[in-house]
Design brief:
Elements: H1 5-16, E1 22-35, E2 41-58, E3 61-73, E4 83-85, E5 92-94, E6 98-107, E7 112-115, E8 122-123, E9 127-129, E10 132-144, E11 160-172, H2 173-176, E12 187-194, E13 208-218, H3 226-235, H4 251-256
Antiparallel strand pairs: 1-2, 1-13, 2-3, 3-6, 4-5, 6-7, 8-10, 9-10, 10-11, 11-12, 12-13
Length: 261
């Protein structure tokens, strides 16, 4: 990878997003499982879309304003879920679809700074492998659980809330090193492991959720698979009108304002 810090920053931004003032989109299929100490238990699949509004701030600094959404579907399908039968507790739960952001990310030569999000990814070693340039990041969160277990016993997963997330972006070396190119065509992946989301209604059940995704950076919304796009338009239409999305959306606090007991 480039030894020059500014060139390294441009490469990182080119692979993750863009070095120009433009919007890029990333669509993921996120398969989510329950982990309760044995084999993974398939829960559902999320159709996940992020809208990333990029702007160069300096020769070695690139910023984005990011909006996110996700629609829960029956596992490995595009069949949206309104209710979900919990395979661990046996209870039917009303699904809480995901909206998050906007939050701000700034990419530099050797780091990523995030504002307005619970997770703050750190850069790992960027390197060339097998004709690709790979850009990995990792984030970890630990905070007290603010849910009152006496009031909401099914929503309380324990005294601490944990969240681990690792992401990887990869582009061909030809595009990654091409200084005439603002945005490379990138394969995108993330996996996470976190405390039970309150809407799952797990209560005192031991375990966490594990998510594993595959996706790609898109040059337009037309790149979203049609069946997946229909789920997003039906359940998270806000993601297609970010100009009107002026209030920050925080997933868990919003759910707790009016939860299913």
């Amino acid at each position: 990878v480039p030894s020059d810090p500014a060139a390294r920053a441009r490469m990182r931004a080119r692979i993750i997003g863009s070095t120009a003032e433009e919007t890029t989109w990333i669509f993921y299929r996120l398969n989510i499982y329950g982990f309760a100490g044995g084999s993974l238990i398939p829960f559902f699949t999320m159709n996940h879309l992020s809208v990333n509004q990029w702007k160069p701030m300096a020769a070695d600094q690139f910023a984005t304003r990011t909006f996110e959404c996700g629609v829960y579907c029956r596992f490995d399908t595009d069949e949206p879920l309104e209710y979900w039968d919990n395979p661990i507790t046996g209870e039917r739960r009303k699904v809480w679809q995901f909206l998050g952001g906007p939050f701000n990310v700034t990419i530099g030569a050797d780091g990523i700074a995030t504002r307005g999000a619970e997770l703050a990814p750190k850069t790992l070693r960027m390197e060339a492998l097998g004709g690709m340039v790979v850009v990995p990041t990792a984030a970890s969160m630990l905070r007290p659980n603010l849910i009152d277990p006496a009031k909401w016993p099914k929503l309380y997963s324990g005294p601490k809330v944990y969240w681990e997330s690792q992401a990887t972006y990869a582009a061909t070396q030809d595009q990654a090193f091409d200084e005439s190119l603002a945005a490379a065509d990138s394969f995108c992946h993330f996996q996470n492991m976190g405390s039970w989301h309150p809407w799952l209604g797990m209560g005192a059940a031991e375990g966490r959720t594990y998510g594993n995704s595959h996706g790609a950076k898109l040059r337009s919304l037309d790149g979203i698979p049609l069946a997946a796009r229909r789920t997003l338009e039906q359940y998270t239409p806000q993601i297609f009108d970010t100009a009107s999305w002026t209030k920050p959306r925080m997933d868990i606090p919003e759910y707790l304002a009016n939860p299913q007991p």
